[in-house]
Amino acid sequence: MKKNVCLRMAMMVAVMLPLFVSCDKKEDEKKEDPAGAIEAFVRNDDRWSFATISLGQYSYTYNGNPSEGPLEVGLDIDGSNNFFLRYDGGQGGEMPERFIAKVGSVEGLGYIETVPTSGWAARLAVQPGCGYVIRYRGSENQRSYYTMDENLERYARFYVIEWMTSTAGGIIGAKVRFEPEWTPTK
After folding, report:
1. pTM of the full predicted structure?
2. What's the confidence (pLDDT) of residue 144?
3. Which residues contact 160 (CB under 8 A, 6 or more apart)?
4. Residue-range definition of the domain harbouring residue 61
């Protein structure tokens, strides 16, 4: 009888063991944030406390004269704790026709690998532990006096590390980490 119980126990362990042991080491590997990643504190007030994110250089024509310059967006948070974008590094107010998409829960920038296919919005709720992608498209920025490459498409990725709180405990913003000039895997 004792042999029978030991044999059954050994068989049960042999059957159950693969359910608890993973041979795939990728689950255990932590993806590091890329070199050049930047941490910033973004306040949820109207005091122009936003993060300026570089999207690289771009070529444009202004009043018929070709030129080149830096392409930047300002990542900001409104009083309701929603992300939105300011254009020209934040100097021109809210950024029309530029979008943010939420990727979902991530452990860092290395986990944001591709561009979302849906969920693009002008404003999105701030959520600690979540990743986001910024999309800028040149075709949406045409004026009679100013044109840029219509095929221009630039991205940046960021995630929310934690809330910033006041000494009284209220939310006053968020700590974010971002990668400027990100080239996603398509």
Report:
1. 0.76
2. 54
3. 126, 127, 128, 129, 130, 132, 174, 175, 176
4. 35-182
